[in-house]
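2.7 Reproducibility. Because tokenized structures are sensitive to small changes in the input, we list the exact sequence used for Sigma-54-dependent Fis family transcriptional regulator, including any N-terminal residues retained from the expression construct. No trimming or masking was applied before prediction.
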Amino acid sequence: MRIYLEALLEAINDAVTIVDQEGTVLYWNRVAEEAYHISRDVIIGRKIGDFFRRESVMLFQVMESGQAVYQVYHEPRPDMHVMINTVPIYDEQQQLAGAISIERNVSQYVKLNAELSRKPDIPFALDSTIPFKVEQLSTISLIGLTDIPLLLTGEEGVGKHAISEWIHSTSGRTGAFVTMNCASIPEGLLEAELFGYQGEEERLGKFDVAMDGTLLLKNIHTLPLTIQEKLAETLRTRSFHRVGGSTSIPLHCRLIATAPSNMYDVSESVIPSSEKFMGICSGLYYTFQQEEIPPLRDRKQDLTELSTYLLVEACQRLNKPVPSFSAEAVAALVSFDWPGNLPQLKNAMEHIALVVQTGHTVLSRDFPVYARLPLLHDMTEKDMPLNAHAEELERARIVDSLQRAGGNKAKAARMLSISRGALYYKLKQYGLE
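Resulting structure tokens (single pass, no recycling of outputs):
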């Protein structure tokens, strides 16, 4: 089993460190080597405190408290930003045996934020309800130029309604954009509401109102089976009959429907519940082209740009200058999953616009409570000087070079590109003589 676990730890893209209860390094994976420039041959079997200041090592704090910590932000050096999860390890007798720390590098998002600060114009296709770049909507825009029915699936708040409006506005259609929420209309009225009614008095349905335009059917999966089948027939023949009527009426609108992401499993029939039918029958499902709209947790690469866009809008409404995001704020953005998607992110940016003082950058503490990050320096390094991070990395590099040079100080100095005199000074400075 051990070889499988080691293979797993080597395969992940996070830095992994395991120490025993004394702080001796038992495991140091490939990503940790690359991140800190310390080979496993040098560090394994040594005290981790020989390479890093105790105050900046989350492993010690976790072993002392016995409590795991998750999503702690740390900046080991100016160009490196990580999120740390650290968990204590107990043996079969429930005695502390050590701890494991996993660090995820989020530096790429911080770098992107720095690049964005130099180009304030962000080319989103839509308004703030659903900011997607034009290239991200390329497939949808092609479908939008046709009469092909489109099914948009995705979680609540990902922007299905706004994308539908955008499709209509860019399609060149002269008719109206009409919306019908299938889940909010009593079952007995659904058919007449959609297809219209033919009797003593003629009543127009949504297909009539959306003539030469677009009809958006929200939550189409809640339609009863009989109406789903009638709708499928309408889309196949491009015509429909009003309730109580026999005249075939040509269909002159394009149809867009929405449903949750879990509607992929489509059976030959739908299963009724006590309140309504759930699912989409295959006869209707396969008349649609389907596009899945991703949730924010799957759009990490867009979050900084998207948040900047929303923050600019919020600050403009409040007539306030737009603050920039700090590295820890970017880490908070990409670490939180935003289950409420765009409305929740927009709300968070409005909160930030309200609380950040003029001239200040956005920090983790400026986010709503649910999205704030614990910071390592707040937990362990309150008294560390500003240059402490650089010093601990420099000390680790010196130890590594001496090990690889077999203790030869002249060779180690050459490897470090410093003079022997400078190396002797550093050895004395860090107590490595």
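The chain has four domains: 1-108, 134-294, 297-371, 386-430.
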